[in-house]
Amino acid sequence: MFEVLIVGAGPAGSFAAERLAQTGVHVALFDGRPEGDPKACGGGVTAKALKAWPHLLDAVGRSVNELEMYAPSGRCIQLKLDEPFAIYSRRAFDAHLRRRAVAAGAQVLKEKISGSRTVKTESGWLLKGANGKEWRGKFLVAADGANSAIAKMLAGPLPAAEMEVAFGYRAPLPTNDEAPTVVAFLPDWVGYAWAFPRVDHISFGIATSQDAFEHQPLDDLLWDFMLGYYRKREDSKAKLWTSRKIDRERDVRLREFLKATAERYAARIPGLLPKTWDTRRACGAGWALLGDAAGFADPVTGEGIYYALRSAELFAESYLAGSPASYEQNWRQDFGRELQRASEMRRKFYGNFWGAPFTERMIEFAWGHRGIKRVLGDLVAGHQGYVGLKRKLARSALRPL
Ligand SMILES: Cc1cc2nc3c(=O)[nH]c(=O)nc-3n(C[C@H](O)[C@H](O)[C@H](O)COP(=O)(O)OP(=O)(O)OC[C@H]3O[C@@H](n4cnc5c(N)ncnc54)[C@H](O)[C@@H]3O)c2cc1C
To answer: Are 208 and 119 found together in one domain?
Structure first.
């Protein structure tokens, strides 16, 4: 019998477990992920998150203070970030947060919980594992990610239109150890590709809408992007997406190298529609949803780690104050409006503006304008939200260079 049962030891579950257990709450933290199998993720953690929780810097990661941002046409700007962000392998990041939960007194159980056999009882909740094992607790927290079976039961399923898909490859670092961090908006598709170098490998990926997802053309696009990335390491004049003078021999060699070394991964990220933010609840009698399970990810970028941690923190504060139901109001006030704004912006962000993709125009304007570049840097750092973004961009554009 536990006081709080937390299903899912990703960032949201582990952080909530730590915050509750350190004040003496008897917490069970369940995770069914096979040993050593990392969560599919870019692992980018914004400067805003690092500032809010400096202990994240104790996890082994790579600090990034420069970012190459590409428009769909291949035009590029170099963003120098005033405050660095970090890129982690999710194996290292999740293990760090889980260790802290254990040190605070949470009991970690390597068990996959059956969502369909989770039952509300008179005294709380009854959870069942794969081998028929059972656990009881007074309060249930679902932090089991974007496919949360418990969230489906408690708050209802999310349609495909409210899901993003992200997939990619973990690949070796270039041999000359020159590994820039890259974000490239996709030509003719919603979303972007990334190259996030970590300590001992690179995470390449594409994030796009699930309802527009077509596997083969997007996989081809990602392969073009990866080849372009390595090609540029060998020849700085080469283009990212297509080389003006394609050196076929080099491309064949690079492709074979990647085919032999890259590991594929794929997963979903919630991307709630504007109206859903008004209706979807993240808590009820004796239960709460955190992080991806609650739908808390940025619908423009797919960033979810900050919201996983912040929702865990807000839930723990509400619970410890003796009013778990106030979590609903607290997350709405804290970041709910911001995420709803992001979801309103999404169509415009990946749509057209003055006859070209908005992302193309944004990079074109930033090219010659320090103020706009700074706003983009703040957006990447997590300090510039979507509320007020348009005003800030317009004000920067009007200011002298
Ligand atoms: C490809 C990709 C790239 C991304 N890149 C970024 C990025 O660069 N930066 C960023 O901020 N966000 C990124 N995101 C989003 C980010 O990964 C999530 O928002 C974040 O991991 C949410 O944390 P969480 O703790 O809510 O859920 P998760 O990290 O998904 O953790 C859920 C945990 O629950 C466990 N679990 C699931 N079901 C059960 C069960 N039945 N029983 C027991 N345990 C269970 C899982 O094993 C897992 O450990 C990316 C997502 C994807 C898919």
So the answer is: no
pLDDT in tens, 308-340: 999 999 999 999 999 999 999 999 999 999 999
Query: Does residue 79 lie within any of the structural domains?
Result: no
With respect to residue 227, please indicate whether it lies within any of the assigned structural domains: yes
How many domains are there within the chain? 3
Which residue CA neighbors atom 19 of ligand 1 most closely?
304
> Best of 46, 265, 269, 379 to mutate for ligand 1, by most ligand atoms within 8 A of CB?
269
pLDDT, tens digit (0-9, with 9 covering 90-100), for 79-109: 999 899 999 999 999 999 999 999 999 999 9
Write out the H or E segment, with its range, that includes residue 305: helix 305-320
Q: Do 120 and 233 share a structural domain?
A: no
Q: Mutation test of ligand 1: which of 19, 33, 39 has the most ligand atoms closer than 8 Å to its C-beta?
A: 39
Closest CA to 94 of 33, 149, 136, 135: 33
- Dmax over CA atoms of the chain, in Å, equals 71
Question: 7: Cβ below 6 Å to ligand 1?
Answer: yes
Residue 388 has pLDDT above 80, yes or no: no
Neighbouring-strand partners of residue 29: 6, 108
Show the domain range for 389.
349-398
Task: Tell me, in angstroms, the distance from the centre of ligand 1 to residue 201's CA.
Answer: 20
Provide the CATH number for the domain around residue 149. 3.50.50.60
State how far Cα 292 lies from the chain centre: 9
Ligand 1 pocket test, pick from 107, 305, 313 with the greatest ligand atom count within 8 Å of Cβ, gives 305
